[in-house]
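Revision sheet: structure tokens.
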Amino acid sequence: MDIKPGQLSIIELTEYEPQLFNEDEITYDAGVKLYENYKMQIDIEFPNYRTNNQWKLLAKGWVGYIPLTPNLHIRINSKVPIKNIFEMLDYVYELKSFRILEGLMDCDSLEGFYNKLAYRLAQKILERCHKGLYRAYLPKTDQLANVRGKLDIRHTIEKPWIVKLKCHYEEHTADITENQILIYTLYIISHSNLCSEQVSTTVRKAYHALQSLVSLQPYKPEDCIGRMYNHLNEDYKMLHHICYLFLANTAPSHKEGKNVTLPFLVNMHSLYELFLAEWLKVNLPPHLTLKSQEIIKKRKNLYFKIDLVLYEKSSLIPRYTLDTKYKTPNKPSPQDIAQVVTYAVSKNCQETVLIYPTQPTNSLDETFGNIRVRSLTFPLDQNLNTTGKTFLKQLLTS
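Predicted:
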């Protein structure tokens, strides 16, 4: 296949399914760029004797869209039904209470979902701009012609030749973190190359509505959560949760400058783990409580991070350590078993469980010392609440 300048070619991958492509379907430079910038997401083998002079690509538990070059984009499809991915995102990003995903669940691809959600975010930001942006008083120091706030008398005495007065005052401004998160997210979306012309126009309109009042500052996903809100900015909580979703799943660019395109990639390993934690929080029986990502320190430079620990709520005695594995093995590996046994020992817990999205050919229910190790399944290819309840029943059955 000879790709002509300006002609877009889209390569389709499915997670954990190795796929071969003819040598002329991917240029050497594009292959190098893919290897250098996305080896965490995709294993790539250059054409050679073993591959019959073809490209061999394997998506490693990530799904989404990579605009690799102007001529070559890569779509990574999930084995999980797209509707179930949206439901998982709904749990993880706490969008359910905002009803923001209504009308988006019928999308047939992640980029379609991205496109529609970007449009909804831009619309909500425009509504807030029309209503008036949230403002706050921020301390400021400046050289002014007239006194404002508190005059810096010492500075005036020490430097009388300076005509303007140094003043310390508070400014009522919209250029605050709450709004800077919004404009930065719109900036990221505008460089995704995933939006239709209609959506891009709305995103640009919202960006320009903020631009005259709010400075562009980079933010991390975690800056969007755990913020304090009041009756004047309660609607920002929804906006920031949506911003978190975009920022957490937009990979860094391999280019510098303004004319960059940014991939939208969902780490299914992380999503599975986070979804399971959120689902359990909602569905655990009242006598149990959950702690996720618990760190157990042994020495200064030695520690464990356990995915999930279930405790008796009344006594805080650990009952189960849980470890999620987003893969489809024939049987749990010795390494995985050793890992969860170590976790159980560190918590003085007698039950530990490996959780997979599909049932291993050979499941596990063995005792190592005084620790029971099991493999269970929380499937993602069916109704999540139904399969979740079955999983929970199996987990709590002795």
